[in-house]
Amino acid sequence: MTSKLTLLAATLLTTTVMAQKPETLDLWPTNQIPNAVANDAVQEKAELGKDGILRISDVKVPTLTAFLPPKNKATGAAIMVIPGGGYSILAYGHEGEEMAKWFNERGIAAFVLKHRLPDDRTQTNKHEVPLADAMQGMKLIRQHAAKWGINADRLGVIGFSAGGHLASTLSTHYHRGPGASEDAKPNFAILMYPVVTFGTKAHVGSREKLLGKNASPEQVAYYSNELQVDEKTPPTFLVHAEDDKGVPVENSIDYYLALKKFNVPAEMHLYPTGGHGYALRVKGKGSIEGWPAACDNWLRSLGLLEKK
User: Fold this and answer.
1) Which of 121, 162, 300, 305 sits most deeply, having the most CB atoms within 10 A of its CB?
2) Which domain holds residue 290?
3) Phi, psi of 155 (to 5 degrees)
């Protein structure tokens, strides 16, 4: 009897672990990836740095990985997570998987986007590619909403650094360009130390990776997302450190002011210190250690921590 109970317990444990295993989907059907150019010389790389950060580069097959909370905790809300990395790499570990698990702890389903990075070697019109992948990611989540037990009207996006640029582009360009659709629109957005502008306060590396070194004034304005906000832009939560040497704090400030101009609900938290690229790794970094609690309160204020 004891051995049977042991076997049953092991089976239940295995089943539970399998049920919690993240599911990964290709964003696009095979051989139907838009703007793709075949180039076998380019292969995806994943490297774990000494800082414990997993970095992914040279993405050719974009994916979406679903991290689902336990069913007894699930609120029905969901969020797509976009790691940063200057449009050169994806800081997939601490700005992707770690954040997904943080949302799961709050009952929110999280979907980590591994999008293609702009690359002339493997793409045509590379400036279109990250947004096309982000739009497709939102559409896929909504298409599978019933399967994953989520409410398609409670789906947001969070982006970090250049991922914040992509998240803010999704928030303001979901109805423009190839793949434009209301199904791609986030219901809420969280922007963490985001690249927003491609103007005078731009993170030059992100701008040049997406648009090249000779971008036209029209392209710069189009992807300066503080200029693209309107009354339909989703409610947004922003976090930035004033001593951020990589992405000037004005990126968040100007986006916040644009949101307020159009009466879009917005909440911004600025901290005197913290630098850049911290995500949840803020212990001992001063008052910025409180940003997750502030975000938790904001999510609660939107009703996203309650089952509906």
Assistant:
1) 162
2) 24-301
3) -115, 120
Q: Would you say residue 244 lies in a domain?
A: yes
Among 24-28, 51-55, 66-70, 302-306, name the one with the lowest average pLDDT: 51-55
Three-state DSSP state, 10: helix
Q: Report the candidate in 279, 296, 267 with the shortest Cα–Cα distance to residue 192.
A: 279
For 11, residues 6+ apart whose C-beta sits below 8 A from its C-beta are none
198: DSSP letter: S
Q: Tell me the pLDDT of the chain averaged across its residues.
A: 93
- Each residue of 181-212: pLDDT tens digit? 999 999 999 999 999 999 999 999 999 999 99
Element (H, E) at 80: strand 78-82
How far, rounded to the nearest angstrom, does the alpha carbon of residue 94 sit from its chain's CA centroid?
12
**Which amino acid is residue 187, in one-letter code?**
N
Say which CATH number the domain at 58 has.
Answer: 3.40.50.1820
